[in-house]
């Protein structure tokens, strides 16, 4: 298996609490991998260690075989690690064409000069139009982000992340808060993401996890608890117990 992203004995402690307990994990090249686990299992902490938002207390993070454990978020992003940001971190007054245009332009080294060069940079324009189309944002491309339906806002988050041309993309709960009527569009768009981008998905929505993922890792109490294909994980009595136990106590 060719590995896009790997952790070896990755560890994070908050005081006496072990949030990530020597987690060893592999995301295959081109993989569609979901990370699941009950509330407080350590999913967000794990993603923050992968992206460099949080420093680890031990272990390693390897991106395409390179040790990035000590690198900053920006350095990891430049090496091809992309992530979605919650929409409130995008500019609410900007339109999809502006947000995607800026992201493409920045990647190409143009930064905010995108606006000045707009008439001449057909390469940027073509890519922006392609992303708008892929993420079904063409008809709302000149609407302020704050006024878009919520599902469209979530699609825009992914489009902006993909505009950075990542090799590995971390999707943080893309379906959270998306109303039923807009869900199918989101699922179809996720299914059509480029196959050469390796994806790690954190999601509470089990329908989405089981349709999207070809592999699932279960975290419990910061520990790598189980892993397998969706069928294997669904059939694992230990996993069922963790989830049923959670429902009973909910
Ligand atoms: N900055 C922090 N300081 C102290 N404890 C923290 C911090 N961040 C997370 N924790 C604790 O670490 C554990 C793992 O939390 P984390 O948010 O990573 O879990 P999660 O699986 O993402 O949960 P959820 O599904 O509810 O978002 C929890 O016990 C949480 O209270």
From TrEMBL:
GO terms for cellular component: plasma membrane. SUPFAM superfamilies: P-loop containing nucleoside triphosphate hydrolases. Keywords: ATP-binding, Nucleotide-binding, Transport. Residues 5-246 form the ABC transporter domain. The lineage of its organism: Bacteria, Pseudomonadati, Pseudomonadota, Alphaproteobacteria, Rhodobacterales. One of its GO terms (molecular function) is ATP hydrolysis activity. This is Branched-chain amino acid transport system ATP-binding protein. It comes from the Bacteria.
């Amino acid at each position: 298996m060719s590995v896009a992203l790997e952790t070896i004995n990755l560890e994070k402690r908050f005081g006496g609490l072990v949030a990530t307990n020597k987690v060893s994990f592999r995301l295959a090249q081109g993989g569609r991998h979901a990370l699941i686990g009950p509330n407080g299992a350590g999913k967000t902490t794990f993603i923050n260690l992968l992206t460099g938002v949080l420093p680890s207390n031990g272990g390693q993070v390897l991106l395409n075989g390179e040790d990035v454990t000590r690198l900053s978020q920006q350095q990891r992003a430049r090496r091809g690690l992309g992530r979605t940001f919650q929409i409130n971190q995008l500019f609410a007054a900007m339109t999809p064409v502006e947000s995607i245009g800026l992201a493409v332009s920045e990647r190409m080294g143009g930064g905010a000069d995108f606006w000045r060069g707009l008439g001449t940079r057909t390469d940027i324009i073509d890519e922006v139009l392609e992303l708008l189309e892929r993420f079904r944002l063409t008809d709302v491309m000149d609407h302020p982000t704050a006024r878009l339906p919520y599902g469209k806002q979530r699609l825009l988050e992914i489009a902006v992340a993909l505009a950075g041309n990542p090799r590995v993309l971390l999707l943080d709960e893309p379906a959270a808060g998306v109303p039923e009527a807009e869900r199918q569009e989101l699922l179809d768009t996720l299914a059509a993401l480029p196959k050469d981008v390796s994806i790690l998905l954190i999601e509470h929505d089990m329908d989405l996890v089981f349709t999207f993922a070809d592999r699932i890792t279960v975290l419990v109490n910061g520990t790598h608890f189980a892993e397998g294909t969706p069928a294997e994980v669904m059939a694992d009595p230990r996993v069922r117990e963790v989830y049923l136990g959670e429902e009973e106590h909910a």
